[in-house]
Amino acid sequence: MTSRRAAVFAIDLIHGTGFLNRWSHKSGIISPPFSLFSSKAFQPKQPRIDFSCVKELNDAIGLFQKMKSMQPEPSVRMYNNLLSVTAKIEEYSFALYMFDEMLRMGVPVDVYTMNIAVNCCCLLKDIKSGFAIMGLFFKSGCEPNVTTFNTLIKGLFLNHKVAEAGKLFNKLLRFRICEPDGCYDFGDGKWALYIRENVLPARDLVRRLERSRSRLDVKAYSALLDGLRKSGMVDDALQLLSAMIEKGITPNVVTYNSMIQGLCDLGRLEDVKVLVNEMSNSNISLDVVTFSILIDAYCKERKMEEAEDLLKTMKQHNICPDVVTYNTLIDGYCLRGEIDKARQVLDSMVDKGLKPNIVSYNCLLNGYCRKGRIDEAWLHFLEFPCKGLEHDTCTYTTMIHGLFSERRFSEGWKLFKDMEARRVTPNIYTYSTLLDGLCRNGETDEALSFLHTIEGKGVDLDRVTYGAVINGLCKNGKLDVARDLFNQLPSRGVLPNARMYTMIIDALCHEGSTEEAQCLLTEMQSHGCAPTSVTYNIMTRSFLKKKELSKAIPYLEVMREKGLSADVSTLSMLIDQMQGKTKDDVLLKLMKDVLPKDFPS
DNA sequence: ATAGGGTTAG
């Protein structure tokens, strides 16, 4: 009964956005009652069909033709198999075409048919049709199940209807559809999105889960924990981890790996040790993923010796490093500028019989670009096809960025045109690079119109993308335009971060509007955005420039309180101002406090 | 027929 209520709720939810669909005119075509017709007892023996041979659209088409003419008629189950395998090869439209045909032919479709069809709609980002199909079945008396709702929720996420997804999910909880056997779908990283944008409800959900008697399985917990981790709620995740253990659900290596990754991201290596110990106490062995995460953590800190040691350790434990492990090392060396070492790692993996993949080569490409060895990067870029690898979005973006950083703008732009011609889809990284390049070449008007083009395509841009444009506008003396864009950010679904505020503050200071910059600093704090040492340095210098020492000092004091350091340029301006003045011990002491940690005395 | 973890670019 409750699942009916959730269905009604779900339909209502989508109703408001226009409940139009291509199936509504056929409502009632499904012949009820499903159970009678799909009952196995009434089916004569069926010949076997090997669905695994469906590898491409034509196979599916052929098989569908064959099945339609089969005697006796194939069961729903067989048709469902065909739908499912067609969806697996990503021919969603044809799957839906077959679904239409099945309805027309009077095949006694069931809840599985519905779920597969709904899933196809969702993957085509046609969420309304997904809801329409559910509504259609619902009217005919076929009740959606947890999988149906999970699929719809996933579809809402894919359509960026995060709030609706959250509402539907909460309904499921309230109607207890997911309990007690626990079928939450936190998979696919989709929940990370929900959690990120709904931290408080998510935390509420976690608390509810901790208290409730319901026992999700390890997979459901792991997925949820991973979602929390990806949303920066590592401590909430750890707390839930303890709660699940208390309930008698044993985490496995996947659960731990996800948590270890979260702690590594925060640089909390001491806590990582605790978890690794916990694992060995519970007889959960580390696997290749655990080691790769740890090696990556060392590489990110440029501690290549430690990383190599770990590689040895894992080999001693008979855990075979894989391509990902080696790629981590290759990237580590490239980030450190040691390309020759990186090449050695690549050779060593070939010796081990492992084939380097596109990631391996992209890391190397980035290594050359970062060192400014653009011509070598080009040669490397041209070699991809010889290795049997096609340039992907990352390859192009890296190369374009490399060219731009050498101010070879027209070549970079030409490469982008080539990328488009080769049908390699640009993504948010590519766009940020291009926008940044335009701005750094002084073409801010072009950047703005390009930005609008991208937005018109429905691409979701983030802070980095907008930050590139705002920064470009500020640096090119177009503060007014920058501020306009900055003010519009929330309505475009992006909240400004400290970096962006700092860009505007910097531009205001350059204009001499230090008082206004001061207001913006207050505003950013009231929006829960903490200024960084960069921000405070800018403010300090701005007042020093105006010879207003007394207004600069409070910022130095704040920095001392927060344990932030002053830049060398700030300090030298400060010293300048003090020349000729009476020695102020308090000020001297303050200056010492905000001295950078590695400042030579 | 369904479900979770690790590598690259802005």
TrEMBL record:
Domain of life: Eukaryota
PPR repeat residues: 75-109, 217-251, 252-286, 287-321, 322-356, 357-391, 392-426, 427-461, 462-496, 497-531, 532-566
InterPro entries attached to this UniProt entry: PPR_rpt (IPR002885), TPR-like_helical_dom_sf (IPR011990)
UniProtKB keywords: Repeat
Repeat found in the keyword field: yes
Keyword Repeat: yes
Pfam families assigned to the protein according to its UniProt record, in alphabetical order: PPR, PPR_1, PPR_2
Family of the protein in this entry: Belongs to the PPR family. P subfamily.
PANTHER family assigned: OS03G0856100 PROTEIN, TETRATRICOPEPTIDE-LIKE HELICAL DOMAIN SUPERFAMILY
Protein name: Pentatricopeptide repeat protein
Species in which this protein is naturally found: Salvia miltiorrhiza
Lineage: Eukaryota, Viridiplantae, Streptophyta, Embryophyta, Tracheophyta
